[in-house]
Amino acid sequence: LLHSPLFSSPKPLLPIDQNIGQIIAVEPQSVEEQAKRSLSQDYSLSWVETYVPESIRTGFVHTYDRLLAALLPLEQIQMASHIQRGHLLEVPFCYHAPAYGYGSMTWMQNEDGKFVLLSLSVHE
Questions:
Q1: pLDDT tens over the chain, length 124 residues
Q2: Per DSSP, what are the bridge partners of residue 79?
Q3: Number of neighbours of residue 80 by Cβ within 10 angstroms
Q4: How many Cβ atoms sit within 10 Å of the Cβ of residue 13?
Q5: What is the rounded distance in angstroms from the CA atom of residue 17 to the CA atom of residue 123?
Q6: Do 40 and 75 touch, CB atoms closer than 8 A?
Q7: Is the Cβ–Cβ distance between 122 and 101 less than 8 Å?
């Protein structure tokens, strides 16, 4: 029994969330790390300037302002691996406080190699 794959795995097996799939340990410098950091901070003008490309800020704020103001910062955030969709990176996430919810964020890398946020969806 001690030699089964379950015990020989180099990394601990994280749970599977029914809405977002396999939970991952977030790697440094990854799009998942950037997404998790953005979700754990207060929503503000500097938040928008940090994560949203200048070319879409007006539309982004118009679309997501109320949602993000009510939602952020989140606690007990878990991430799943991003899904590559052409040049876009969809990052599924869930959170467990103050209540359970899940969603996904759509990011892309800009010309500087920095991840920038384009859109998000949240389900409670």
A1: 455 555 555 566 789 999 999 999 999 999 999 999 999 999 999 999 999 999 999 999 999 999 999 999 999 999 999 999 999 999 999 999 889 999 999 999 999 999 999 999 999 8
A2: 24, 93
A3: 22
A4: 10
A5: 14
A6: yes
A7: yes
Which class does domain 22-123 fall in?
alpha beta
Burial of 57 (0-12, 13-18, 19+ CB in 10 A): middle
β-strand 83-85 against 88-97: which pairing, if any?
antiparallel
Q: pTM of the prediction?
A: 0.87
- Asked if 117 contacts 61 with a C-beta cutoff of 8 angstroms, the reply is no
CA atoms of 37 and 40, how far apart (whole Å): 5
Give residue limits of the domains in the chain: 22-123
Which residue is listed with tokens 């998000």? 120
Tokens representing residue 108 in the block? 């892309």
